[in-house]
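**Protein fold record**
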Amino acid sequence: MDELTVHAVLDMLPDVFYAYDTDGSLVGWNKRLTDITGYGDDEIDGMTPLDFVPEEDVDTILEAIDTVLTDGRIETRQSALVTKDGEKIPFEFNARRVTDEDGNVRGFVGLGRDLSEREKRQRELRRQRDELKTFNRISEIVREVIHALVSVATREEIERTVCEYLAASELYRFAWVGDYDIVEERIVPRVNAGNDGGYHELVDREADSDWERPAETAFRTREYFIARDISTEAALPAELRSEGIDRGIHSGIAVPLSYGQTIYGVLVVYASRTDAFSEREADGFEALGELVGFAINAAESKKLLTTGSIVELEFDVADEDALLVPLSRRADCTFVLEGSVPASDGQFLYYLRTKGSPPEQVAAVAKSFGKVDDVQIISSHDDTGVLVLTISESLVQQFVEIGAKVRTAHAESGEEHLVVEVAQDTDIRTLMNSIHSSHPGVKLVAKREVERADKSQSGFQESFSANLTARQQAAFRAAYLAGYYDWPRESTAEDVADTMGIAPATLHQHLRKAEGKLASAFFGDTQD
C-alpha cells in the first residue's frame, strides 16, 4: 500500500490519528486533527503532545508517554483536547510504541476519540437517575400527605398538613397556601411552613405593583407555574430575583388547588436548588393539587352534613351559560330539578320535571344545546313529564363541587331561582368568586341561618352514605330519580343503566349492594 493510500485511509477515520518521534514532535496526523483543533497543517507540524492538552493534564500525559516509550505498553488516558480557540473537548487518547527492524524505538502512534457525546449521554443518564430519585421521593411525600389527611377534619388542617410535610422534607425549603381575596383582588397567604428568610412576605408586599405574581398566574390559568431558576426568571422583578438568591431560594412552583370547576387556592413551594421542578415532578405536584382540592371539598361537604345549623342562600340566575335559563325560554317550559347524579367520563345526569310544553318538544329543544349530550324521556303526560339530560357542565354541579347542597332549582321564562345550603362558617366571598368565574350572571338575593329540620334524618343519611361506594350511591340515586322504585315503574333497569353508560348487570349489582346496606341500616344488621 503506497503512502498516498495510507493517508486517504487515515483521513477517513472518525478519530484523531497522530504520530510522534522520540523528541515528542508531531510527524504525522490525519485531517480529523486539523478539523477539530482549527490548526492548519503548517501550524501543526512539529507541535508536541503538551501543546494540545490543558495544564492540569500535562503530568498525566507525560507519564503515559514515558510508559509507552520505556516499557512498550499500550497506554490509554483521558484528557481535554485544547483547540486553537482555547475550547476544551473531552477526549480519550491511546498510544503504542513504534520500533524499527533492529528494535530501536522510533516514537509512538495513537488515536484520540471525542468523548463529548458519551459524556453528554452519561450526564443525561445521571440527570434521569437523579430526577427519578427525586420523583420517587415526591411520590413518597404525596403518600405521606394522603395518610396524614385521613385524620384531619377542616380545610385549615388540610392546608397546614400539606405545607408542613413538604417543608419538612429534604427537597424543599418552604411551602405556603393562599386563596384569592375578592376585596383585595389578590392572592392572600393562609398558612405556611418552613423557613424562607421572609421571602414570601417580600413577594406579598410587591402585590400592588404592575406585575402578576406566579401564584396569581397559577390561580388565573388553573395550571402550575414553574420558576426553574429565580436568578433569571423573567416573571419576577429584578429586586425579587436578587432577594431570592440572597435568601437561598433558587426555584419554585405554584400549583392550583382545585376540584372539578372549583379552585380553592394555590400551593407555592420554594426549593434551595435550581431546576428542582422538572415537568415530571410538576405532574406529581399537579396531582397533589387535585388531591388537596378533593380533600378540601370533602371536608366542606362533611361539615355541611354534620353541622347543627346551616346557612341558606338564595340566588337569581340570568346567565345564558346556566343551562336552564336559555332552555326554559326556548322550550317555553317550567323546569324543576329533581336531582343530579354523576355518570361516566366526567358527565352527570340532570333529572328535570317539566310543565307547560309536551316533553317530546322539550327534549327536541334540549338536544340542540351543545352542553347536552343526550336526552331521554322518563315519563310524559300531555304537557308534563320527567326528562333526564346527560350533560358535561352545569351551574348546579359547580355548587355541589364547592361543597354546597342545592336544595331547589326552578327555571321559567329565561329566569332561574336556586336555594342552596352551605355550612355555617363557609366563606361566602370565596364561594361567589368561584361561581362568578364561570357564571357572572348569578346574583345572591338572600342569606339566612336556619336549623336543620330533622337532625336524626340527616345523621342517618350521612351514616348510610358513608357505607356506599360512589358508584353504588350514584346508581341508587339514579334509579330513585328515574322512577325505578315507583309502581308502575317509570323506568326499567335497562333504561337507568343506559343513561349511566353502564351494563344492566353492573347496575343490578350496585343496586343490590345498596339495597342490602339500606336493609342492614334499617333493621340493625351490621353485616355487609
Summary: The chain has 18 helices and 18 strands. The radius of gyration is 36 Å. The CA atoms of residues 332 and 413 lie 7 Å apart. The first strand starts at residue 16 and ends at 21.
